[in-house]
Structure formats: C-alpha cells, structure tokens
Design brief:
CATH class: Mainly Alpha
Oligomer: single chain
Helix content: 55-70%
CATH architecture: Orthogonal Bundle
Structural class: mainly alpha
CATH topology: 434 Repressor (Amino-terminal Domain)
Length: 123
Amino acid sequence: MRKAGPTIRPMSSDLKRQVGHRVQALREARGFTQEQLAGLIGRSVEAISKIERGKAFPAPDTFEVLSRHLSVAVRDLFPEAPTANDSRARLEARASVLVAGLSDKALEASLEILATLARLSPG
C-alpha cells in the first residue's frame, strides 16, 4: 500500500500572471528595458518576456536576483491578494509600484483622492 504524501497542485496561472505584471511594472518604473534587466540578472530576454507574460514562473534564485536589481523585497514580487481579472491585476501592480515611490505627504493626498473616487464610483 502506498503512503499518502503531500498533494502537489499545479501552479495557478493567475499567480504566474500577477507576478509577471509586478515584475513588468517594477522594471518599467525603474526605467529598464527587458534587455537591460535580462543582462543584469543573467537571464535571456525571452525568459524575462515569459515571466512578464505569466508563461514562466521564476526559480527561487531568479526571484532573489530580480528583487535585488528591482530594489524590492522578494515578497513584493507577489500580489497581496489574488485577482482573477488580468486587466485589474496589471492596474493593481502598477498602482502598487507608484504608491511605493510616494512621500508620506503625497501618499496622504493620493488616499484622499482615491477615497473621493471610491465614493463617486458606482460599485
């Protein structure tokens, strides 16, 4: 009789896409092209493209080197919460990168603007 071991589930394509969106948003915010980032981390342009499109998931060592060259913690390459809508995931990734670069004063002003928009938004 076979022992029951841990169940290994396939990686969610949503998670791969969301990580890819975050990598792309961070790369663009830092002003890197895919070619430049590939050179910095010792990977091919095709590898960067596949990561950003959610077609490939970085290995642990790639996460480490990406985080170093994008100036973020590894955890910041992952979404805070899963988002089913791909377009929404892209927007949230871009917003997260922009928010991280704001001063406290600018962040307070941005939150007031977002709160106003949320009140005016139907749903």
